[in-house]
Amino acid sequence: MTSTDSHIRDPHSFVPARKIEDLEPFRAKYLAERDKRLTESGAEQYLAVQFEGKFSEFDADPYARGRREIAPMTAEVDVLVIGAGFMGMTAAIGLKKAGISNIKILDVAADFGGTWYWNRYPGVRCDIESYIYFPMLEETGYVPKERYSTGTEIYEYCRLLARQFDLYDNSLFQTRVTGMEWDEDTARWTVNTDGGDVFSARFVSTQSGLFVRPHLPGIPGVGSFAGHSFHTSRWDFDYTGGDAEGNLTGLEGKRVAIIGTGATGIQAIPHLADHAQSLVVFQRTPTQVMPRLNAPTDTSWFESLPEGWHTERRIAFDKCAMDRVAADSEVDDGWIRFAKYQLAAMAEAGNGNPTLQDFMDAMERSDYEWNEMLRDRVDATVLDPATAEKLKTYYRTLCKRPGFSDVYLPTFNKESVELVDTSATPIDRITERGIAVGDREFEVDLIIYATGFEHGRSWTDKAGYDVLGRNGNRLSKKFSDGISTLHGFLSQDFPNLFFLGFTQTGAVSNFAHLIDQQANHMVYIITKAMKSGIRALEPTADAEAGWNTVMREVSVAKLEYFTACTPGQYNNEGKLADNRNPLVSGVYMPGCEFFDLLAEWRKRDDLDGLSVTS
Ligand code: NAP
Question: Which fold has domain 74-212+456-605?
Answer without folding.
Answer: FAD/NAD(P)-binding domain (3.50.50)
